[in-house]
Amino acid sequence: MTPRSTRRTGAAKSRLVAIGALAAAGALVLSSCGDQTDDGGDGGDGGETKDAASTAPGALPKAIEDAGVIKVGSDIAYAPMEFDQGGKPAGVDIDIANALGEELGVEFQFQNNVFDNLIPSLDSGRFDIIMSSMTDNKERQAEVDFVDYFSAGVSILVQKGNPEGITSLDDLCGETVAFQRGTVSADIAKAQNEKCDKPIETLPFTKDTEALLQVKQGRAVADLNDFPVAAYNARESGGGEDFEVVGEQIDAAPYGIAVSKDNPELRDALAEALDAIIENGEYQKVLEKWNVENGGVDKATINGGNE
């Protein structure tokens, strides 16, 4: 059953998913980005959709076709979406990228980077695309184009047993809250702080794993991160004894593959390839593998983030 999504007033940007039992190694699980608008499955209205026609994906830019490689920027610390597994990137995004690569006849090579450096690195030409659970929103659309491929919302993660009785964003007023810098979680904390009589003490970190540690050690009452990641950590960290997710998801929004606005040919080829793997069933196989089916989309959408 898909969890309900709570609408937050103010600058909304996030991600939504129902996640099932994830079989993976225990221990403190990694988290990242997040960041993030307001619709679930297909990423909302207002975006340009690509028909899932039974045709081969469009042509790639010649330089990429000749190289046989698409360079992907990602903050690989966000299980189950993207994380390090035995020294190699793994997760939902990696498997979707591999399926896209099969359609396009190229290899997707992931390069690890800090989340809030990803768009500047794309602009500088270090990557061809970003695939890092990045929320498609209007602010980011000013810098890049998105091919939306997934959907998720932000959740509140607390210590197991919820010792402070946190159930909503309002309960965070006057408390200490940790999150990853440069994400929509940071935006949510900032917007909530403006509503509080007693301000939230915010602890931003480069990696969400650092924010999780603050909660585990009692230095913060909550960590804000994307629901699939929050649920994964609640299930896996400490054998399920470290954390729990409380309250409802906040601001469902699409994740998008970010592409330079100067490269519409690559953007459109990715959108057509996404439609192809949705149609042939490979996309669904990835979602089922990671138990994130309810975050799936029905078709590729370009710039579908509404906020």
Write the layout of secondary structure elements.
Elements: E1 5-6, E2 48-49, H1 62-67, E3 69-74, E4 83-85, E5 88-90, H2 92-104, E6 107-112, H3 118-123, E7 129-130, H4 138-141, E8 144-159, E9 176-180, H5 184-193, E10 201-205, H6 208-216, E11 222-226, H7 227-236, E12 243-260, H8 264-280, H9 282-289, E13 301-302
Parallel strand pairs: 1-12, 3-6, 3-7, 9-10, 9-11
Antiparallel strand pairs: 2-13, 4-5, 7-12, 8-11, 8-12, 8-13
Describe the structure.
This protein is α/β, with parallel strands linked by helices and 307 residues long. Helix content is 27%, strand content 24%. The protein has nine helices and 13 strands. The strands form two sheets. Strands 1, 2, 3, 6, 7, 8, 9, 10, 11, 12 and 13 form an eleven-stranded mixed sheet that branches. Strand 9 (176-180), helix 5 (184-193) and strand 10 form a beta-alpha-beta unit. Helix 2 (92-104) packs across helix 8 (264-280) and helix 2 packs antiparallel against helix 9 (282-289). The chain is globular.
Quick synopsis:
This protein is of the alpha/beta class and 307 residues long. Helices cover 27% and strands 24% of the residues. It contains 9 helices and 13 strands.
Distance between the termini: 26 Å
- Strand-and-helix sequence, N→C? EEHEEEHEHEHEEHEHEHEHHE
Main pleated sheet: 11 strands, mixed
Q: Which percent band covers the strand fraction?
A: 15-25%
Count of discrete alpha- or pi-helical segments spanning 4 or more residues: 9
Show unreliable segments.
Answer: 1-45, 50-55
User: Radius of gyration, Cα only, in angstroms?
Assistant: 18 Å
Structure class: alpha/beta
What fraction, in percent, of the residue positions are helical?
Answer: 25-40%
Write down how many β-strands occur, each being a DSSP E stretch of 2 or more residues.
Answer: 13
Specify the overall morphology: globular
Summed over residues and divided by their number, the pLDDT gives a mean of: 85
